[in-house]
């Protein structure tokens, strides 16, 4: 006992927190977020590797005319960094990119990013990852966080003769701004969310626009209204207004759109009636309306939020082609009815390879297990973030993260908080290695599959939501349930290990001590 100090207030001294080395792969929305939040917890040994020359992720990659978010602007922001300056209800792509660049500068992220340095290989061994970049540099980390996003590998269609086309041809994600489409005969392949934004803009410039539709889309009529300077000033002068507006949109998306797709009948019925009525009132010509009428449930494909597409396809210079593409020729596109549609330019609005995630990186976990082998039968994860035999590794926005038409920023913030709680346990010395149990991985994915039967995504359509087995790679329950389940990591679902302390005099590998 120390004289004058009661025994009851004495406690053993606390060990200082360990400081992990963390590598972030990608400097898009999630990479920026993770950097900011890691630093807030006192973690500063962070390496950020970005394959391109600037921040922004998908909003850097996509620059096509008409590009805009399909989530309300004031909801599509970091919760800690509201933006009263949005010019539209749903922000245009260039504005969103500017927002991320501004946040990156404000929080000192930009200056720390290693640009034009893609990750080519990441290999795990006893609590550490060794990462190799396209510049031949090697980095060591205790944790790697894949912030590689979903929509960044353009999917090119496998159509006979595509390489023979003599005109200008490019994917919407690789828009060629040197090509002037004014007065030209233009073809657009696809009618999804991107095409619904591109087509109205191209139709204004082209002498003739041929839209090649494989499957019609349900469209929710949401006009992208301009935010007046008066409204922006009110938001600027009163931060509480911005917060209330954000909360309103959060409530609307969580309780209407996401619940409609997840099997809640009142919301589903309302959504269906709205989209069906929108089609009927917007398209007067019955034959055109028939071409534009899907044969699947509303929401089975990602819902298109748009108010300009139906007007565009009714223009005199626009032709909706539904006969199906037989081949691409030097002059244009030949459809299955034998007709050749002559074109000067061809735009591929054919989506992305959305199941690539961190690939084509050569990622190897325990025992040299390659990510391609781990996912050879099915692309799955535990809580969308963890793969068995790939310890100390997190995948942001992985399989089954997408929640209806909700904001991916909100999803990333929930995942970020979850990851930080796990890293905090590492800092406290609870473990050196954390890996998901195969049994937890299996039961979680069974839980997902059980919930899919009630969703609209099994409504008989083909969409980018579906994997090779036809299973939707989405979250089948509500946003509220997802947040609740992600509040705290279930440590019983993980295998943790501590490694003996390595010394300079020890050349042999030490035996791993297992921890419950």
Protein architecture, described:
It is a single chain. With 516 residues, the chain is an alpha/beta fold. Helix content is 29%, strand content 17%. The protein is built from 13 helices and 22 strands. The strands form six sheets. Strands 3-2-1-7-19 form a five-stranded parallel sheet, with helices on one face. Strands 8-17-9-10-13 form a five-stranded parallel sheet, covered by helices on one side. A four-stranded mixed sheet has the order 6-5-4-18, with no helix packed on it. Helix 5 crosses helix 6 and helix 6 packs across helix 7. The chain is globular, with a radius of gyration of 25 Å. The two termini are 36 Å apart. 41% of the residues are buried. The N terminus and C terminus are likely disordered.
Throw out a few tags for this protein:
516 residues, alpha/beta, five-stranded parallel β-sheet, 29% helix, 17% strand, globular, disordered N terminus, disordered C terminus
Q: Quick one: biggest sheet?
A: 5 strands, parallel
Unreliable segments of 5+ consecutive residues:
1-12, 504-516
Q: Give the rounded overall mean pLDDT.
A: 90
Count the beta strands: 22
Gyration radius over CA = 25 Å
Estimate percent helicity.
Answer: 25-40%
What is the topology, as strand order, of the major beta sheet?
A: 3-2-1-7-19
Beta-strand content bin: 15-25%
How many helices? The count is 13
Kindly name the structural category.
Answer: alpha/beta
The dominant shape is globular
Distance between the termini: 36 Å
């Amino acid at each position: 006992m120390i004289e004058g100090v009661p025994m009851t207030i004495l406690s053993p001294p606390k060990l200082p927190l360990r400081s992990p080395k963390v590598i972030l792969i990608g400097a898009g929305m999630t990479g920026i977020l993770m950097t900011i939040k890691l630093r807030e917890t006192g973690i500063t040994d962070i390496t950020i590797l970005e394959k391109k020359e600037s921040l922004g992720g998908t909003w850097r990659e996509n620059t096509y005319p008409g590009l805009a978010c399909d989530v309300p602007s004031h909801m599509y922001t970091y919760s800690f960094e509201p933006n009263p300056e949005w010019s539209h209800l749903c922000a245009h792509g260039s504005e969103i990119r500017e927002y991320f660049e501004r946040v990156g500068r404000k929080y000192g992220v930009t200056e720390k990013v290693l640009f034009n340095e893609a990750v080519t290989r990441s290999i795990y061994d006893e609590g550490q990852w060794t990462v190799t970049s396209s510049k031949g540099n090697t980095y060591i980390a205790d944790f790697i966080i894949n912030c590689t996003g979903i929509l960044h590998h353009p999917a090119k269609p496998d159509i006979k003769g595509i390489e023979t086309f003599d005109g200008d041809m490019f994917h919407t994600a690789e828009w060629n701004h040197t090509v002037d489409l004014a007065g030209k005969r233009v073809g657009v392949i696809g009618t999804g969310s991107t095409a619904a934004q591109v087509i109205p803009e191209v139709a204004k410039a082209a002498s003739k626009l041929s839209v090649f539709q494989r499957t019609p889309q349900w469209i929710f009529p949401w006009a992208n209204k301009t935010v007046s300077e008066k409204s922006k000033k009110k938001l600027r002068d009163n931060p509480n207004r911005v917060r209330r507006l954000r909360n309103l949109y959060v409530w609307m998306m969580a309780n209407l759109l996401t619940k409609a797709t997840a099997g809640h009948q009142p919301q589903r019925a309302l959504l269906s009636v709205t989209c069906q009525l929108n089609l009927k009132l917007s398209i007067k010509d019955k034959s055109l309306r028939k071409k534009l009428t899907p044969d699947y449930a509303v929401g089975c494909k990602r819902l298109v939020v748009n108010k300009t597409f139906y007007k565009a396809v009714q223009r005199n210079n626009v032709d909706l082609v539904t006969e199906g593409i037989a081949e691409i020729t030097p002059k244009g596109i030949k459809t299955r009815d034998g007709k050749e549609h002559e074109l000067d330019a061809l735009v591929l609005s054919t989506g992305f390879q959305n199941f690539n995630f961190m690939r084509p990186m050569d990622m190897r976990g325990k025992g040299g297990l390659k990510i391609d082998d781990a996912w050879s039968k099915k692309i799955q994860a535990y809580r969308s973030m963890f793969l068995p035999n790939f310890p100390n590794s997190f995948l942001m926005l992985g399989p089954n993260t997408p929640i209806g038409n909700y904001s991916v920023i909100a999803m990333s913030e929930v995942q970020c908080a979850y990851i930080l709680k796990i890293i905090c346990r590492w800092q406290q010395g609870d473990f050196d290695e954390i890996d998901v149990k195969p049994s937890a991985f299996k039961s979680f994915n069974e839980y997902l599959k059980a919930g899919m039967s009630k969703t609209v995504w099994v409504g008989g359509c083909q969409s980018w939501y579906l994997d090779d087995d036809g299973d939707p790679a989405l979250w089948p329950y509500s946003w509220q349930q997802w947040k609740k389940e992600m509040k705290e990591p279930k440590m019983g679902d993980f295998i943790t290990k501590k490694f003996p302390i390595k010394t300079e005099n020890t050349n042999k590998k030490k035996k791993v001590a297992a921890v419950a």
